[in-house]
From TrEMBL:
<keyword id="KW-1133">Transmembrane helix</keyword>
<dbReference type="Pfam" id="PF03806">
    <property type="entry name" value="ABG_transport"/>
</dbReference>
<dbReference type="GO" id="GO:0015558">
    <property type="term" value="F:secondary active p-aminobenzoyl-glutamate transmembrane transporter activity"/>
</dbReference>
<feature type="transmembrane region" description="Helical">
    <location>
        <begin position="217"/>
        <end position="236"/>
    </location>
</feature>
<feature type="transmembrane region" description="Helical">
    <location>
        <begin position="408"/>
        <end position="426"/>
    </location>
</feature>
<feature type="transmembrane region" description="Helical">
    <location>
        <begin position="33"/>
        <end position="53"/>
    </location>
</feature>
<keyword id="KW-0812">Transmembrane</keyword>
<feature type="transmembrane region" description="Helical">
    <location>
        <begin position="299"/>
        <end position="321"/>
    </location>
</feature>
<feature type="transmembrane region" description="Helical">
    <location>
        <begin position="380"/>
        <end position="401"/>
    </location>
</feature>
<feature type="transmembrane region" description="Helical">
    <location>
        <begin position="86"/>
        <end position="105"/>
    </location>
</feature>
<protein>
    <submittedName>
        <fullName>AbgT family transporter</fullName>
    </submittedName>
</protein>
<feature type="transmembrane region" description="Helical">
    <location>
        <begin position="469"/>
        <end position="494"/>
    </location>
</feature>
<dbReference type="GO" id="GO:1902604">
    <property type="term" value="P:p-aminobenzoyl-glutamate transmembrane transport"/>
</dbReference>
<feature type="transmembrane region" description="Helical">
    <location>
        <begin position="268"/>
        <end position="287"/>
    </location>
</feature>
<keyword id="KW-0472">Membrane</keyword>
<feature type="transmembrane region" description="Helical">
    <location>
        <begin position="342"/>
        <end position="360"/>
    </location>
</feature>
<feature type="transmembrane region" description="Helical">
    <location>
        <begin position="126"/>
        <end position="149"/>
    </location>
</feature>
Length: 506
């Protein structure tokens, strides 16, 4: 990755040197594929070393013990589940299915034509903010933003003559760093509200019944503005200057006006997209509505396939209109090229899948989380000092358990009662947890989509490793942490409810 520090200020030079050091150290690690294989081996050996270490689950009272994978049962698990761990790696199927649709739109030239149109229609100064904002709002579609926005952000920046990795990081920062923020209520709000209510019921069952899905809505809406502003500032002031000019194999898109055939293809593809979107909208309130809550409906469970269709149909229409696709063999060839471009990620998913599965099977992540919560309970801190310790512990635990809801299942029964006894409401405690979780999402390799982001980045720079990605994302993480802590302090000072009827104090 090229770095051009000559024209930067003194403070930025120091920051860039620190980030360069982090990148250098990180990239001295093996390739991501081999690194996850080594981490899987370390988990196996650690499970033997810490075998028998146990904790009590504060929710169920169940004793959880570290499982040894170097026993006969453990070795049988490793060998019998290798294929299932690979196939069951959560992002694998979602990424491949989505990329079939995106890849067809890219292969036929629809994405490039859209980029050309963007150059002439979108205010350049607002592009970065729009990309970060789109990333934040993508949590409406659960994890779909991870798959769609980073590669599109990179392509968009490249098409506008900017460094593609800056577009990728801006989108990733919005999607992952802003996962706890949104202007609308999401399935995450519903899940966390339920877990918070269960934890609060241990202290005050009557109060627990008043906890609503909208409990963090006010704070989440303001956080959208914060994440968008911070993400935009970090991208333009730190990430892009550090990256310098793009000197990779990718080429800047031709930004001449669209040809007649391209314009025709865009029009037809646009009509196709609108019709497809209308059909999907009907399905969401009709056959795929289901009997459950809307955010838990079959439609939301099918979002990966929905996104595939929304890209595939316009891409196919554009290809046929511009005569790039003339028969089924052309279509098959384009889809094959897309899958070939994902071969590196598929190989990476095998070792990453083993590591994540082993970590879960050994229970080490759960043991670490519960012991971390117990440490917080024994610190003796109160007030804002306790809040800061709570934030730091949650950030640390995020390096061991990637799922937001999985962590809250473990931590809510400990943190919520502690904070209620100190006078803080369960709703406010959940806000603290959500921002703590978000700021380290973008720098933890245990995030399920972290290997995928590396694979996307390697399209533009084959040498990129974990160190490069962490060094690019660390400024976002630090800036979001500082900004959110300041916002939290102001929120406490002014005593603003974090959601409708959700006061700060219990």
């Amino acid at each position: 990755m090229a770095n051009h520090h000559e024209k930067t200020s003194g403070s930025n030079k120091i920051l860039f040197r620190i980030l360069d050091g982090i990148e250098w150290v990180g990239n001295k690690l093996p390739s991501p594929l081999l690194l996850f294989a080594l981490l899987a081996l370390i988990v196996i050996l650690s499970s033997a070393l810490f075998s028998g270490v146990s904790v009590t689950n504060p929710t169920s009272g169940e004793v959880i013990t570290v499982n040894n994978l170097l026993t006969i049962d453990g070795l049988q698990y490793i060998f019998q589940n290798a294929v299932d761990n690979f196939i069951g790696f959560a992002p694998l199927g979602a990424v491949l299915v989505t990329m079939l649709g995106i890849g067809l739109a890219e292969q036929t030239g629809l994405v490039q034509a859209a980029l050309k149109g963007t150059v002439f229609s979108f205010p350049g100064k607002l592009l970065t903010a729009a990309l970060v904002f789109a990333g934040v709002m993508s949590s409406i579609a659960v994890n779909a933003g991870y798959i769609v926005l980073p590669p599109l952000g990179a392509a968009l920046f490249l098409g506008l003559g900017r460094h593609p990795l800056a577009g990728l990081t801006a989108a990733f920062a919005g999607v992952s760093g802003g996962f706890g923020a949104n202007l609308f209520l999401t399935s995450t709000d519903a899940i966390l509200a339920e877990l918070t209510a269960e934890a609060a019921a241990t202290i005050d069952p009557a109060y627990a019944d008043t906890i609503a899905v909208s409990m963090n809505w006010f704070f989440a809406m303001v956080s959208v503005v914060l994440v968008t502003a911070v993400g935009t500032w970090v991208t333009t002031r730190i990430v892009e200057p550090r990256l310098g000019n793009y000197e990779g194999n990718g080429t800047e898109e031709d930004i001449e006006t669209l040809a007649v055939q391209e314009k025709k293809g865009m029009r037809y593809a646009g009509v196709g997209f609108l019709i497809t979107a209308a059909v999907m909208a009907y399905l969401s309130i009709g056959p795929l509505r289901g009997d459950e809550k809307y955010l838990e409906s079959p439609f939301f469970d099918s979002l990966v396939f929905v996104i595939f269709i929304l890209f595939f149909v316009p891409g196919l229409i554009y290809g046929i209109t511009t005569k790039v696709i003339q028969n089924d063999k052309d279509l098959t060839q384009f889809l094959g090229k897309t899958m070939a471009s994902m071969s590196g990620y598929i190989a990476l998913a095998f070792t990453a899948g083993q590591f994540i599965a082993y970590f879960g099977e050994t229970n080490m992540g759960t043991v670490i989380a519960i012991k971390g919560a117990a440490f917080l309970n024994n610190t003796g801190f109160d007030g804002f000092g306790l809040i800061l310790v709570f934030i730091l512990i949650t950030m640390g635990i995020n390096f061991f358990i990637g799922s937001s809801s999985a962590k809250w299942v473990i931590l809510a029964p400990v943190f919520v009662p502690i904070m209620m006894n100190l006078g803080y409401s369960p709703e406010f405690t959940t806000v603290i947890y959500r921002l703590s979780d978000s700021v380290t999402n973008i720098i933890t390799p245990l995030l399920l989509y972290f290997p995928m982001i590396i694979a996307f980045a390697q399209r533009y720079d084959k040498s990129i490793g974990i160190g490069t990605l962490i060094s690019m994302m660390l400024p976002y993480s630090v800036a979001l942490l500082i900004s959110w802590v300041i916002l939290l302090f102001i929120w406490i000072l002014l005593g603003i409810p974090v959601g409708p009827g959700a006061e700060i104090y219990y």
